[in-house]
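Continuing the batch. This is chain 6 of the set; chains 1 through 5 are on the previous pages. Same settings as before, nothing changed between runs. Recording input and output for traceability.
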Amino acid sequence: QVQVVESGGGLMQPGGSLRLSCATFGLSFSYYHMKWYRQGPGKERELVATISSGDGSATYADFVKGRFTISRDNAKSTVYLQMSSLKPEDTAVYYCNAEHSWRSSYQYWGQGTQVTVSS
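Output for chain 6:
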């Protein structure tokens, strides 16, 4: 059974840093593109960052470029999102998504972790 489990959310002050983790179980992790999405209050879910299954190349939404870094550890079947210079508008539930690299219909989602940025 596949499991995708996020952790690391919490309450941070503006300008602070936080690292989210997403551990996967039951996946051939190295074959999956890994993505972080977020959904703020009253907003649509949006893609934050992607790290590819092959060369580990990363792409970012414009609103997090230069502030967030996505990385993966294939040995641990885990993906990370290092967030810095946090802003109140980063407040959202952050979701981890695993998408098979050539069978995109094979997708798995975590339950989400809440990040709140407030003074």
